[in-house]
Amino acid sequence: MMSFSFNGFRVGISFVMMCIVYKSAVNSLPELSPQKYFSTLQAGKASLAYFCQADSPSTSVFLEELNKAVKPLQDYGISVAKVNCVKEETSKYCGKEKDLLKAYLFRGNILLREFPTDTLFDENAIIAHVLFTLLFNEVKYITTPEDLRNIENALKGKANIAFSYVRAIGTPEHRAVMEAAFVYGNTYQFVLTTEIALLESIGMEDIKYAHLYFFHCKEVLDLTQQCRRTLMGQPLTTVDIYRFIKSMEAPLLTEVAEDPQQVSTVHLQLGLPLVFIVSQQATYEADRRTAEWIAWRLLGKAGVLLLLRDSLEVDIPRQANVAFKREEGMLVEFLVLHDADLVISYVENNTHIEETREDEADDMEGPDMEMQDDEVAESVYRDRKRQLPLELTVELTGKTFNATVMASDSIVLFYAGWQAVSMAFLHSYVDLAVKLKGTPAMLLTRINCADWPDVCTKQNVTEFPVVKMYKEGENPVSYSGMLGTEDLLKFIQLNRISCPVNITSIQEAEEYLSGELYKDLIFYSGVSVLGLFSPTMSTAQEDFTEAGKYLKGYVITGIYSEEDVLILSNKYTATLPALLLARHKERQVESIPLANTHAQDIVQIITNALLETFPEVTVENLPTYIRLQKPLLILFSDGIINPQYQKAMLTLAKEKHLDSVIPCWLNLKNTPVGRGILQAYFEVLPPLPVLVVVNLHSGGQVFAFPSDQAITEQNLLLWLKKLEAGLESHITILSAQEWKPPLPAYDFLRMMDAAASQHPTRKGPEGMKETDIQENDKQPEDKSAARNEWIEL
């Protein structure tokens, strides 16, 4: 299955490139005539030919990239030649100009595939596309979870799988996977995808970068059992993939009975540390089970060995149960770690590779990165060849805009085709269309403001991207949430109802508070808000109605103002006017008085109520909590936190002991940047979990909970009281410097002014200067575009 075409590829390939002439000398490329070139082609020989036609514009950039690919292709048995088209010789590859925009891949004299030349945009793309085509049996490209399940089931008990996700075909990561398949294609089945949904289906949340999984299917004999999966932690480079696969081939667990200082395995040769689980005869079986569990968790990160203490001639510290060897030649460290999770945390904290993926960016031959949105621009550049199902959204023009948005309830994306953030968000917008496909939702539309600026100006769109919702008889509503698929989906679903909802009976109010009335929307809004008012409280009702309209799309709000409202106020101990906050997950209803509270204050109250009591902090939600201007009480954890810690925090919060801080926790596996934060606090990564208080808004002090104390309600409360009394010393003080972009944004107007100053001043009619014309042409300010923002949601 995996060897036929692979061996055929090694016999020989011919790859023919059609292009425009490049007049500069390229020493690496031998120059041949068409007749001479074709006469050299033989079965079993490989060749990459570049045909050039005289008297045509040059393509120096492409030729430079092709020249870079010469040596790597030769390493794979593919020679490269430049073929000069001459009038004396005829060849279909020297034909019409449109044929020069394609590339042709041959094996011998047989044409395998043709490519548009713009897909071969750099050295990596050329090599990746050629190998991808030739290794069509060794690398299966899939698009659905079902495809992956079928391959996995077919290979159980037979072979292991190397499954990789790359963001686009032709990227450096794609090339690295293809080169690995060239080496290991006979041993493992390589599977490739560029579909985000497929990666999400196997539980991967961080899809910012390329990933590679190793599926251990060969040892699985039960077809109902899932293959174990090991995620490669390093960036996808050829060398790192090689090291990762070699570590997969090493024994899972090795027993040794010699001085650990003298032990050497393939892991050390690959740059991975060794972890020795110290065992003795009395606990051998339990120790071995523990060692195997740790070995699976550290697979690809470290080698795990079972060290038999009873058989050793060297002394090991009596209390030590773990030994750690960082690299060849270094002294072995003896440790006392009584929990398997502590062993794993210690290894990962002391061998952590920063997952900034700088190598991926360095390998990119892409656009100029000297701009404020460099990461966004990079992602757009990498994904530029990805085919989006744009047909799932309706493209609007100046002629069709009004007719479309008036005919049906519509979501309109206003974007600019030249802007990186717009094009990045377009991917999320299309992903939203995929999720809503086949559902009776709103019409999803888009308009490119670069093509139709007059339409966007009339809609008060002055920045990009912007999403607006249009409903018949209502003013357009602008979306102001995160630029992601899930947040936009929540906004659309919650806009299916008109808030605040008018509740007309006690029974309906109870159904509303229990979540039964809008149970299909509870997934998108875990809190329902009900305003209680007596019929005479017209001003308070107006303020609440205004707040409910402002929060539409972010939370479900309802209003009850019937004569029997006292039944609800008495039941929930609420003094009118009041808010009832129904938290559906906790099945709790709490009341908040609203006496003399204006609409803006109601928005703030509801917004704060939506925040979790003990949330997991992420890059996306951290600004929301920092905005509250309180110190952060952060529990750093390497994975899901201990339920006992969570219970302690929630109990203290419920008893109002944590009102002066914001209790939260950070999962280093979901948010790897947390490791860098801890290093800034401690210099050396401490054992996890670790609890700190960070006072960002007053002095920048960082305080650490004592590592020798258990995280319990009593210990926490005592420590916090010492902090308030000034009896605790800080471990560091954060600098007060501003967090600015690494490089300034381009000032295009200044650039235009500078360019204009290099030319003579143009005069208008009757000697009027250009600057005078510009001043007279100023348009009046659009007052309708201005609006008051209460709070950024």
TrEMBL record:
InterPro entries cross-referenced by the UniProt entry: Thioredoxin-like_sf, Thioredoxin_domain, TXNDC16, TXNDC16_2nd, TXNDC16_3rd, TXNDC16_N
Ranges for domain TXNDC16 second thioredoxin-like: 132-251
Disordered: annotated span: 757-793
Top-level taxonomic group: Eukaryota
Chain ranges of the Thioredoxin domain: 394-493
Organism (species): Pipistrellus nathusii
Annotated ranges, domain TXNDC16 third thioredoxin-like: 252-341
TXNDC16 N-terminal domain segment(s): 28-131
Comp. bias (Basic and acidic residues): 763-793
Protein name, entry field: Thioredoxin domain-containing protein 16
A Pfam short name: Thioredoxin
Gene3D superfamilies to which the protein is assigned, alphabetical: Glutaredoxin
